[in-house]
Design goal:
It is a single chain. With about 325 residues, the protein is α/β, with parallel strands linked by helices. It has 3 domains: about 80 residues, no CATH class; about 90 residues, no CATH class; about 120 residues. The protein is built from 19 helices and 8 strands. It is globular, with a radius of gyration of 19 Å. The chain starts with about 20 loop residues before the first helix and ends in a 10-residue tail after the last strand. Bound molecules: iron/sulfur cluster (2 copies). One iron/sulfur cluster (SF4) binds next to helix 1 and helix 3.
Length: about 325
């Protein structure tokens, strides 16, 4: 049986270890935008040390994009993503946020899994499901992998908002996944939870799975901006930092996640942005990452990120799976 969703990220007590070093500020997109310590991981940890409660920190935890960029840099190894999630979970959603969550989480009637016994399953993001050609290409590139009918978008959104997930719904989602030996997941936050729910499954992000393929690697150019899905990356940072460094060395392209500049588009937003209750800042993010770079194309692992950057850029935006199609210029 899976652990109940609410216990996936245990309430971390390690905020007590925060020394106030400020390293997390250097990578935090919220700090870069606001320079407001109260909205930073440092601010939350220090406020908790001095006795603040979840309700007092509600605006702060809601501002977090859950990108997890702060975790790898924290010398005290504080579980900062889990801290934001737990703070959210402890404060009831406003009526406005609840209504927005209900709207955003609306799903078509669940479709039965086509091949419930498949050894490998692809869990696409909703945006990828809505681009059948790209989904079919990704599927073929991954050896004809079966596509899971239920992408769990409502579960991912509820977890993100700190809202409860009904045990029956979670079980319906996980039941077919338990039969798979390997899972390719497009949503980085869901992937992090799936590692907890399905500890024996071999789990990998869609971006990593596709970018390992020589046919797609050959399609990358030195003048590309390669947009890594931030949440999947930071969920497995110690391994993936070496992996993506190798990709950078081979292709010569720029990344949206690097030590100097981090730009995180749609796959990591504040809760209000995610629920459509606050404006997004994709133009700011894109300008920040492109400044001084001769980039001619944007390659995305997540179509949600692709849609965000396509809105604010004149550059062509291509999903990684579509690199196998040489009609893209
Ligand atoms: S998860 Fe991202 S947005 Fe949230 S505090 Fe960490 S770096 Fe900042
Ligand atoms: S990096 Fe870690 S120890 Fe340093 S201020 Fe941030 S949360 Fe505290």
């Amino acid at each position: 049986m899976p652990a109940p969703a609410a216990t996936v990220m245990q309430a971390p007590a390690d905020f007590a270890a925060c020394s106030g070093c400020g390293l997390c500020l250097l990578v935090c997109p919220v700090w870069r935008r606001t320079h407001d310590l109260g909205l930073s991981p440092l601010g939350r940890a220090k406020a908790l040390q001095y006795g603040a409660g979840a309700a007092e920190l509600a605006a702060s935890s809601a501002s977090c994009t859950l990108c997890a960029a702060c975790e790898p840099v924290c010398p005290e190894e504080i579980a900062l993503l889990a801290l934001s999630l737990e703070l959210r979970r402890r404060v009831p959603l406003t009526a406005e946020a609840q209504a927005a969550l209900a709207r955003a989480g609306e799903l078509p009637a669940p479709v039965p899994l086509a091949q419930a016994s498949a050894a490998a399953l692809l869990l696409p993001e909703r945006a990828l499901r809505q681009r059948p050609q790209t989904l079919a290409r990704a599927r073929a590139l991954l050896g004809g992998i079966s596509v899971c009918a239920d992408e769990g978008a409502d579960i991912a959104l509820a977890l993100e908002a700190g809202a409860p997930v009904a045990t029956a719904r979670l079980e319906r989602f996980l039941q077919p996944l338990r039969r798979a030996e390997s899972l390719v997941a497009a949503d980085g936050l869901l992937l992090r939870h799936l590692r907890h729910w399905l500890p024996r499954a071999n789990l990998v992000s869609l971006g990593e799975a596709l970018s390992r393929l020589p046919a797609l690697r050959r399609g990358l150019r030195a003048s590309d901006l390669y947009v890594i899905e931030a949440r999947a990356y930071h969920a497995d940072y110690q391994r993936l930092v070496k992996y993506y460094d190798g990709l950078r060395a081979a292709a010569g392209c720029a990344f949206n996640l690097d030590l100097q500049r981090i730009a995180i588009p749609a796959s990591a937003r504040s809760l209000a942005q995610r629920l459509g209750l606050a404006p997004v800042d994709d133009q700011v993010q894109l300008n920040w990452i492109l400044q001084g770079r001769a980039v001619t194309r944007i390659v995305v692992e997540s179509l949600e990120d692709g849609a965000a950057f396509a809105q604010v850029s004149k550059l062509p935006v291509v999903h990684l799976a579509d690199l196998a199609d040489d009609t893209h210029s």
